[in-house]
UniProtKB/TrEMBL annotation, chain A:
<dbReference type="Pfam" id="PF00005">
    <property type="entry name" value="ABC_tran"/>
</dbReference>
<keyword id="KW-0813">Transport</keyword>
<dbReference type="InterPro" id="IPR046342">
    <property type="entry name" value="CBS_dom_sf"/>
</dbReference>
<feature type="domain" description="CBS">
    <location>
        <begin position="277"/>
        <end position="336"/>
    </location>
</feature>
<dbReference type="InterPro" id="IPR017871">
    <property type="entry name" value="ABC_transporter-like_CS"/>
</dbReference>
<feature type="domain" description="ABC transporter">
    <location>
        <begin position="22"/>
        <end position="259"/>
    </location>
</feature>
<keyword id="KW-0547">Nucleotide-binding</keyword>
<comment type="similarity">
    <text>Belongs to the ABC transporter superfamily.</text>
</comment>
<dbReference type="InterPro" id="IPR027417">
    <property type="entry name" value="P-loop_NTPase"/>
</dbReference>
UniProtKB/TrEMBL annotation, chain B:
<keyword id="KW-0813">Transport</keyword>
<keyword id="KW-0812">Transmembrane</keyword>
<dbReference type="GO" id="GO:0005886">
    <property type="term" value="C:plasma membrane"/>
</dbReference>
<feature type="domain" description="ABC transmembrane type-1">
    <location>
        <begin position="18"/>
        <end position="201"/>
    </location>
</feature>
<dbReference type="GO" id="GO:0031460">
    <property type="term" value="P:glycine betaine transport"/>
</dbReference>
<dbReference type="InterPro" id="IPR035906">
    <property type="entry name" value="MetI-like_sf"/>
</dbReference>
<feature type="transmembrane region" description="Helical">
    <location>
        <begin position="183"/>
        <end position="204"/>
    </location>
</feature>
<dbReference type="GO" id="GO:0055085">
    <property type="term" value="P:transmembrane transport"/>
</dbReference>
<keyword id="KW-0472">Membrane</keyword>
Length: 423, 215
């Protein structure tokens, strides 16, 4: 256990930290010489352990907003609280050591080895050398790089994707509760980016950090975010909600323009087969005697049965008509099962499989490919409709709440100065 | 007496001069490097301060070496002091300029990353910026050294140390049997020293520039 070697001098390293809340209150950044502020009076709350994506067109101030959280850019006004503690006036160097920071193109120092890069923050925090060494190996392992192989390499000897992994490892090395990521996957090719996103999802499931992630790619936002903040110019929040809500009920034209075409299709990416439920289907085993298969086909309400192989894996679709040609053997009868999906597949994948299969349904498999049920077009369509309907309802309620809130806020604001004037 | 016989009979004197030449150049280079890097570090972040430092050191370099030493003699006297001061001043320009260029050339996103992970100003400079700017600074040091090798010869004019003494003596006694040999010995000695120093710098580069940024 790496944690057990921590000396008494590093009590904060003893326990693995999970996320912390972040509260931004009226954050504003005004650059001298420009009339309008770059970030204008932004207030946001990030919950413990959630991944929030800041997304918006370039120049909307999303990076500026992010960099104000670790005070790489000092806010002109407003407060920042992390884990309830006001850090607006804290020593920025100490603050940043508690906040992981990963940037585009990794930001690795080219003159240091992978291990030296990862060890930087733990060393600055004066962890004992042995613990730093172990931590480096642990982090490399965590981001899926073989410690023995990559330990002594220099950044330029790594591919873009590997560099990015090391960048994330460095950001997480001192186990900070908060991780800020500034378009970290912006400079890698689409396939690598996809892998890195999957890795980040996996990491986050293990670590439960509070992640604030900046991107201009809305699809990336949907994939990674627990909640998404769509920002317009000067970091005004156009909508701050779950991906589902934004997809099904964009707050205004700006957001729907940003969501882009095919919102309903993108929605399918957010739901898994597990969530819509699978249906049972008549099955037989290849080992069953032919007469029994016959009787199952005749007695069953369907035109087809699914034949499973000896290990219970979907093997063939068998129709009534096929039995005529079977002539005592199953070998030549029926159509082989094409695609299968798992419970974890997204509805989009399932739909894809259903559409390409001519039976209009696709078997769902579990461990070692064993049959668990099927999904068909109807189930999919129904559940998609239900989902969209539920999303819409939820969004409408949320919007009503928001309007109430705004109304009472404007009310209060109008009352406020009036009251002072009278006093 | 041909050149080889001259070398044979005077090698003691020549070696002492060569040693003193190398020594004065080396010591002045150490001072110039420290001073030059400090000036670079102090000025590189500001546009005008950096330019001021570069222009000032460039202007110093345009003063003829003979004039510079001549001007220093009434102030600091003869011998070692004017030599050291002049050499150090001349050595500054390439180092200051390369230090500024090198430090300014560090990828801003790396400085941002260094800041972002919580490095203090001093740590950033010592661990990130200076190591990354080191190759150009080392180039500046090499150029400076080559230059000082030649300029140091002028120091003999102010009764300074070094191989310049041979050259000046030779020029003063032109026509005598050993005049040419003396000039030749001084000049060749400087060239050999310059080559030796350069080789040392190549070795220094190998030892001090991390593998990750070696060209």
């Amino acid at each position: 256990m790496p944690d057990s070697v921590a000396g008494p001098r590093t009590p904060e390293a003893e326990t693995r930290s999970v996320g912390a809340t972040i509260e931004l209150e009226g954050l504003t950044k005004r650059y001298p010489g420009s009339a309008l502020p770059a970030v204008d009076d932004v207030s946001m709350d990030f919950r413990e352990g959630e991944t929030v994506i800041l997304v918006g067109p370039s120049g909307c101030g999303k990076s500026t907003l992010l960099k104000m959280i670790n005070r790489l850019i000092e806010p002109t006004s407003g407060r920042i609280r992390i884990g309830g503690e006001d850090v607006t006036d804290m020593d920025p160097v100490r603050l940043r050591r508690k906040i992981g920071y990963a940037i585009q193109a990794s930001g690795l120092f080219p003159h240091m080895t992978v291990a030296q890069n990862i060890a930087l923050v733990p060393r600055m925090l004066r962890w004992p050398a042995a613990r730093v060494r172990e931590r480096v190996e642990e982090m490399l392992d965590l981001v899926g790089l073989d410690p023995g192989e990559f330990h002594g390499r220099y950044p330029r000897q790594l591919s873009g994707g590997q560099q990015q992994r090391v960048g994330v490892a460095r950001a997480l090395a001192a186990d900070p509760p908060v991780l800020l990521m500034d378009e970290p996957f912006g400079a890698v090719d689409p396939i690598t980016r996809d892998h890195l996103q999957d890795e980040l999802i996996r990491l986050q499931r293990e670590l439960h950090k509070t992640i604030v992630f900046v991107t201009h790619d809305f699809d990336e936002a949907i994939k990674l975010g627990d909640r998404i903040a769509v920002l317009r110019e000067r970091s005004h929040i156009a909508q701050f909600d779950t991906p589902e809500a934004i997809l099904t009920n964009p707050a205004d034209d700006f957001v729907s323009g940003f969501v882009g075409a095919g919102a309903a299709l993108k929605r399918l990416n957010l739901t898994r087969v597990r969530d819509v439920g699978i249906t049972d289907y008549p099955t037989v085993s290849v080992d069953d005697p032919l007469e029994e298969i016959f009787s199952r086909l005749r007695s069953g309400g369907t035109n087809e049965v699914l034949v499973l192989d000896k290990r219970g894996r979907p093997y063939k679709w068998l129709r009534r008509g096929d039995m005529m040609r079977a002539k005592g053997s199953l070998a030549r009868a029926g159509a082989l099962v094409g695609d299968t999906v798992t419970q974890d597949a997204t509805l989009r994948d399932a739909l894809e499989a259903v559409l390409t299969d001519n039976t209009g349904r696709v078997p769902v498999t579990g461990r070692r490919g064993a049959y668990e049920g099927v999904v068909d077009v109807e189930t999919l369509m129904n559940s998609v409709h239900e989902l969209l309907e539920a999303d819409r309802l939820e969004a409408r309620e949320a919007q009503a709440d928001l309007q109430d809130q705004r109304a009472s806020q404007t009310h209060a604001e109008q009352e406020g100065p009036g009251g002072e004037a009278k006093a | 007496m041909n050149f080889w016989e001259y070398l044979g009979s005077r090698h003691q004197q020549i070696l002492v001069d060569a040693y003193q030449h190398a020594s004065v150049v080396f010591q002045c280079m150490v001072v110039a490097t420290l001073l030059g890097v400090v000036i670079g570090v102090v000025t590189y972040r500001s546009e005008w301060a950096g330019n001021l430092a570069t222009v000032t050191t460039a202007t110093l370099l345009t003063i003829p070496a003979l004039a510079m030493i001549g001007l220093l003699i009434p102030v600091v006297g003869l011998g070692v002091p004017p030599t050291v001061i002049a050499l150090t001043l001349y050595g500054l320009l390439p180092i200051v300029r390369n230090a500024i260029v090198g430090l300014r050339g560090v990828d801003p996103s790396l400085v941002d990353a260094a800041k972002g992970i919580g490095m203090s100003r001093v740590a950033r400079l010592a661990r990130v910026e200076l190591p990354l700017a080191w190759p150009p600074i080392l180039t500046g040091i090499r150029v400076s050294t080559q230059m000082l090798m030649g300029i140091a010869a002028i120091a003999a004019y102010a009764s300074g140390p070094g191989l310049g003494n041979l050259i000046f003596r030779g020029i003063a006694s032109l026509g005598s049997s050993n005049a040419l040999n003396q000039v030749l010995a001084g000049t060749l000695g400087i060239i050999v020293l310059a080559l030796l120093f350069d080789a040392a710098y190549v070795l220094l580069g190998r030892l001090t520039i991390p593998r990750g940024i070696r060209a």
